[in-house]
Amino acid sequence: MVILLDNDNPLLRVENLTTYFFSGEGTAKAVDNVSFSVKEGETVGLVGESGSGKTVTAFSIMRLVPPPGKIVGGHIVLDDGTGDLVVKPEEEMMKIRGAKISMCFQDPFTYLNPLTTVGKQIAEAITLHREITSEDAKNDVISLMKSLAIQSPEERYDAYPHQLSGGMRQRILLAMAISCGPKLLIADEPTTALDVIAQDEILSLLKEIKNKLGVALLLITHDLAIASRLCDRIVIMYAGKVMEVGSARHIFREPKHPYTSALLESLPRVRHKVIELKTIEGALPSVINPPTGCRFHPRCPFATETCKKEIPELVKVAEGHYSACLRINEIYQ
User: Fold this and answer.
1) What pLDDT, on the 0 to 100 scale, is given for residue 122?
2) Cα(225)–Cα(258) distance, integer angstroms
3) Which of 47, 146, 197, 221 has the highest local Cβ count within 10 Å?
4) 71: which strand partners?
5) Domains recognised in the chain with CATH numbers
6) What pTM value is reported for the model?
């Protein structure tokens, strides 16, 4: 069932997206029938534990799923006339990536070439989509670096990745991602491995980029605190499935799924000078042999025999708020 989340004219529509990885051990259902949408200028967060399918969803949208992975079903539609990305040939996707939709990856060291200066790497992204001289491209890169508060951009242009701090390398990836003015920016765990100060700077920068450029932002994070700071709407994922979708207010004030509630309860709370931390019992299940019924039932304190047998579908619980829980009317009265 396709859920467009009360969004009549979204920029991005992900409909029943299904991405599997095939190996000798079996078929890993990394993304299983996932649907959500993102409208122009909106920030949507994909939130869940590591292994929930967030990054594979993003790579599917970019059509960059590494082998032995494959999109086996569903649609990824850019509603600006581009159409369904799932059926686009690779030559067309190369023109779309960066120009219309771009991604800021999680690990700068993995995605930055250690043998090429960072300035040339950003310039390469620009010249790939625009007919421009190398000198003009360099000037555009320096101007872009200034806008991202990169100190001494003329010097940084000729720097190699290893000569920059972690926060600065993340800014370089952001510069590459927005260099051609995309309509949708995907940010995959952009604050991972950064110190608290650098994290705050990157999050502030993402918010500024969204406001200045008017881009839509799809933020991938395992941290609900980060999602609360940036996101208009939140998609909660677990073991390749969507558990709950709603506005940030709905998710944080009126959660309607036991997994969402458990994530919120695991956030640090300071009471009487003592930090209380709650954990979710158990571990994320294998997506090669996922549980029958609701995939969260082995860790859910409210699970019944019905939860072990029936697969819950997303149902509307309020305007713009959806939950995939069979016992929602009993648990949340």
Assistant:
1) 94
2) 18
3) 47
4) 19
5) 12-100+182-256 (3.40.50.300)
6) 0.93
